[in-house]
Design goal:
The protein has 81 residues and is an all-alpha fold. It is 73% helix and 0% strand. The chain has four helices and no strands.
Length: 81
């Protein structure tokens, strides 16, 4: 007789997969931001690079991504004004 835990195991495994997808999107978006700035010739100090790679909020990274397309400096990417 089974324990009836197969559904629970499936749920847990799916949760980890979803978490991994989000984590992958976050890492990818951070890489995109840095790549855009590099291609545009915008200097990215180590502190700014660390700020981008340490961020885990996809919504924040999306805002920074959009700013990176036109930002004249790395600091302008983070400007909240």
């Amino acid at each position: 007789m089974g324990t009836g835990l197969s559904h629970f195991r499936g749920f847990v495994a799916e949760s980890f997969r979803d978490e991994g997808r989000v984590e992958g999107r976050v890492e990818g978006r951070a890489e995109d931001i840095l790549r855009i700035l590099a291609v545009r010739g915008v200097s990215v100090p180590d502190e700014a690079r660390q700020r981008v790679t340490a961020c885990t909020d996809l919504a924040v990274l999306d805002v920074w991504f959009e700013r990176a397309v036109t930002a004249p400096t790395a600091d302008a990417v983070f400007d909240d004004s």
